[in-house]
Amino acid sequence: MIKTLQIITLLIAFFSSSLYAQRDSFTANDFSSFLEAAYIADATYKTEDAIKSVLSKQGYELQVLRQVDGYSVAFIIAINRMTKHQLIAVRGTSNIENAVVDVAFVLVEDKITGIDIHQGFLLSARDIYEQVRPLLEPGYKINTIGHSLGGATALILAMMLDAQGYNVDEVITFGQPKVTNITGSQTFKHLNVKRLVTPKDMVPLVPPVDPVNLMDFSIFWHQGTEVFLYSDQRYAVLTGMNSMLRAASFLNDVPSEQHLSHHFMSSYIEYLKPKLENPIQVEYKNDFSITDWFGSSNNKTP
């Protein structure tokens, strides 16, 4: 038992310190950028005119709006000629029940990135990848944005483009489920990934960490910096194992309307607004202990 806990402690130290390139804190300007990304992610669920309106306010021109055949996602490509950026935003589903229940978490090898990726997300990402490549401007930086299953696809798309030498600048996702394993996350730890989550959104937590598989590098694992949004000015920054253990607080939760609403883009927008002035960073404290998985040391046989 002691040896097992020692190994897990070493793993926690490794994952927390080396798996991610993290930002320690964020400014009001950062949250303003997150809010702009949130407006774009929200607009992907709306009409073409609404999408154009949101994009134009941020200096972007809509180039492509397209549904991916056979999948629940759609995507847009937009261009900002002043800053020489192209934006790819992927629409997923705002239905948390579909996101959690209908998703089969199976990892398959991807030849473009060289890592194992969630099978369902990978298929839609490949489709979008083939469609956007001919439309990418030489010398332009690429940003990807997505919500829910669209966030997962947006992250995979960024990894594909990065693996093929494109200049991926930033990835911002909202309520994004896990897409790859520990090895895959390590391979693309250099990407600038920001994952925004609300307190009761269950989608970023699936599938939950199984303690039996902690020694298995093929388990699903998040990458990038997790920005945990409270409803007021507060936020927390989580990475590595601390981010993964956040799922533990949901083990005894019964799904409710609150969980559903916390996955909507409207909730993400409302949680970002208070942080446009004087955002306050706090420490996130997991209410779950490793020893809860393996029993208290007081139960050891003398």
Structure in a nutshell:
By secondary structure, the protein is of the alpha/beta class. It has helices spanning 2-18, 28-43, 48-57, 96-101, 119-132, 149-163, 182-187, 240-245, 257-261, 265-272, 290-294; strands spanning 61-67, 74-80, 85-91, 107-109, 116-118, 141-147, 168-174, 180-181, 193-197, 220-221, 225-229, 234-238, 280-281. The protein has a single domain (27-299), classed as Rossmann fold (3-Layer(aba) Sandwich), CATH 3.40.50.
Q: Segments where pLDDT lies below 50 for 5+ residues?
A: 5-10, 12-21, 211-216, 290-302
Helix/strand order, N-terminal first: HHHEEEHEEHEHEEHEEEEHHHEH
CATH class: Alpha Beta
Strand content: 15-25%
Report the sheet with the most strands, covering strand number, pairing sense and barrel closure: 9 strands, mixed
Helix/sheet category: alpha/beta
Stated plainly, the CATH topology is called Rossmann fold
* Main sheet strand line-up: 1-2-3-6-7-9-11-12-13
Span of the ends, CA to CA: 13 Å
- What is the architecture at the second tier of CATH? 3-Layer(aba) Sandwich
Radius of gyration: 19 Å
| Residues in helices, as a percent range | 25-40%
- Please report the total strand number as a whole number: 13
**Total of domains:** 1
Shape label: globular
